[in-house]
Amino acid sequence: MARRPVLGSVALAATLAVALHGLCQWAFVAPAPGRAGISQTGARVSGKPDAFAQPGSVLAAACGVASSAALVALASRSSRVTVRANPGSPSLIQVLEQKGLLSTVENLGLLSGAEKAGIKVSTVEELGLLKLAERLNLLSLAENVLTNGSTPFLVLAGAGILAAGSFLCATYPEGSFFQYFLTGALGAPALLLGGAALVILLVFGGTRRTRPIDVTEKEVSYGEGGFQSQEVLRSASLLETVEQKKVLSFLEENRLLSLAGSLVDRPLTLTENLKLLSTLESLGVLSQVESLAASKGGGALPGLGGLVLLGAALAALTLLPSYGVLVALLLALPGLAGVALGVGIGLIKPPVRGEAFSN
């Protein structure tokens, strides 16, 4: 059964009810002639408006902030959107490798710290976060936003507009509930957007595409001459392919993360101690796998190489009776790794339109 955004709806309804109450008081409960009302006392003692000295102004601003948060919560539970990787931009995996973020996570001990805090590798699975991220396309959306060079400037522009609106509302001499409600509703998103823009600019700026991830698709259109097809290039990142092929749902439904946690004691700490993240980052393994998956027959080379090594291991086991077992073992291990890599790349190959009709 699909969950409904109950918490966001309740929060939004509560804040709108409080706002409506304040608006009714402001609009219909006017002070008597010659007598200052509540909103007029304390606001102009020395002839100057004191912005947040009025009763209810802080409550109004808090309601505005809460309504903005409720709207964000409702928007996050909306229907999924289709997000494509930015043409010519690096994938998020390439950005992580170029900026050294994987090794930074490892050096800061964030993985072991998470396990010490009680967050296990199966926690995301138990909370249903994998399916949620896949249903809302959160991975590809984050990749599209973070790797787009214009994102921080657009976000800064939006933050500036909201901040200007919040400033105008805060300095308006009327001093109404609705004024401070708008001040909070506009000011909180402006602050968050400004901070997010600076983080994106500092952390993800100055990167470039290091490996090709484009796939060729065929688009069929109908015109005066009948059906016509043309080839177009599309960027296909690994995160986008993982969402399209429902890999996250497969992991969660089959409880594979819980299985890994039961087989290995503290797997996140083990990953950190073995320096796996920094090794993958320095060798560029993840971006190489992503590029091979996007290329035609990318998994064929490691798969065929693995089969050749397995054949050589079998031949050594047969032809070298004295020390053939050792030679066969040394050949079989990389052979199995090559076959597994080839099969894995084939499984994460991005779907391509018109590929089944190509010759």
From TrEMBL:
Top-rank taxon: Eukaryota
Signal peptide start-end: 1-21
Membrane-spanning segments: 52-74, 153-173, 179-204, 300-320, 326-348
Keywords assigned: Membrane, Signal, Transmembrane, Transmembrane helix
Keyword Iron-sulfur: no
Protein name, UniProt field: Uncharacterized protein
